[in-house]
Write the structure tokens for this entry.
Amino acid sequence: MAKLYAIGVGPGDPELLTRKAERLLKAVDLIMAPFSRKGDEGIALEIVREFLDPKRQQIVTRFFPMTSDPDILADAWRRAAEILADHVENGKNAAFITIGDPLLYSTFIYIKKIFGESYPELEIEIVPGISSINTASSVTGIPLAEAGQRIAVIPATSGIEAVEAAINGFETVVLLKIKSLYPEILELLRRIRPERDVVLVEKAGCKGQKIINDREFMAIHHPDYLSLMIVRSL
Ligand SMILES: C[S@@+](CC[C@H](N)C(=O)[O-])C[C@H]1O[C@@H](n2cnc3c(N)ncnc32)[C@H](O)[C@@H]1O
């Protein structure tokens, strides 16, 4: 029976794709790749392009706008789910690719919900990917947690109070989606973490990767969308 595969393609380096992801990407009939900036076909597709065969496989790019308008978002997710379900119902294997891992702040989570509600008979298999969090930890050599330590993952979009509470409550905090709240985060860190236990990682595991430890340089830097920070107690 045909399936929908949700494939995590890792942070950017095609060598960080799992063997299972590579095998399935070469085998499926349709690959759907999300993108959210017009004119940019999507980071996930760039990562896996070398494994695809456009003569044999259908490659569909879908625009998922970066908006908080629930109607626009719901419409984009539903239409994507319909295309995928249509293929699977017709006996074709389809893959939805996501950067990092498919179940960590990914559009796939919404598509999975729609499948559960509207197409419960269709099978989904999730292929985990190496997340940006693990990649940032590896490229900086900063452990995420040891012994009894606790780790919090906070999207900065949840607000500066949530960021502050996490930093005060956990030994390690990983801040994702930092771009929109960057000046406020730097100000908070100046106030409550003046030491050197903060690193900014931009494009972890990708071409153009940057690791910034220097607070003065951080202050004049304009982070890319693909940026995160690790804040860790020394
Ligand atoms: C929508 S989330 C996607 C997370 C992804 N599913 C994962 O497993 O890493 C996007 C956020 O993840 C972080 N991110 C994703 N890829 C990254 C990379 N290669 N380097 C640094 N941060 C990254 C950034 O904080 C970005 O704003």
